[in-house]
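>> Question from a student workshop board

For tomorrow's exercise we were told to take the sequence and the ligand below, predict the bound structure, and bring the output to class. My setup keeps failing. Could a helper post the expected result so I can at least see what it should look like? The ligand is iron/sulfur cluster.
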Amino acid sequence: MNYGTIKYFDIANGTGIRTALFVSGCRVHCPLCFNQVTWDFNYGKEFTESVEEMIINSLDDQFVEGLSILGGEPFEPENQRRLVELLRKVRQKYHDKKNIWMYSGYLFDKDLKPESGRKHTEVTDEIFSMIDILVDGPFINEQKRLDLNFRGSSNQRIIDMKETLKQGKIVLSPLNN
Ligand code: SF4
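>> Workshop helper replied:
Here is what the output should look like for this input. Compare the format with yours to find the bug.
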């Protein structure tokens, strides 16, 4: 897996101060995507173990609330298989002390969660069990709004994953506006 950028002390992609990882590769291809260079799976640099360690250690800072993973598309199958390893390490080190947000241009209930979903893999359920928030849905320029919390268009949903898994239905976070 490659990544384009890591932003430390990021405040735009989730609550509080965070580390934000932008992975490479996306097949969603939303028209007017703001980040088309990241569609290429070879864009950026290789996500090595030392890069992974830097990200994990950046969460040690008491002011850092958590980790956000964006793209590109984190839920392309090849990215899921590498990211699940990162998530396991973050949970092993910090348990529930840090929260984890992931973004996807795919839909939770159509593409990702069902076993028949086009981006469901053998690690998708494990990923969902380890994250707190999923922001899902493609960017739709006609529904673009500048006043939205943590997302670009109003079709995108901020999903509370813990409650969603507990209740067996999509539970939106109160952060949706
Ligand atoms: S999912 Fe994200 S990176 Fe992919 S095309 Fe849509 S906006 Fe761009």
